[in-house]
Amino acid sequence: MEHLLGMTLEELKGVAKHAGLPAYAARQMADWLYKKKITSIADMTNIAGSKREFLQAHYHIGIFPPVKRAVSSDETVKYLFPVDAGRFVETVYIPVEHRATLCVSSQIGCRMNCVFCQTGKQGFAGNLKSAEILNQIRSVREADELSNIVFMGMGEPLDNTDALFRVLEILTSSYGYGWSPKRITVSTAGIHKGMKLFLNNSRCNLAVSIHSPYPDERRSLMPIEKTNPIKDIIELIRQYDFSHQQRISFEYIMFENKNDSVRHAKDLAKLLSGISCRVNLINYHAIPNIALKRCSMNKMQLFCDTLNTKGIMCTIRTSRGEDIGAACGMLSTERLKSTKEKTV
Question: Which residue among 19, 36, 60 closes a domain?
Answer without folding.
Answer: 60
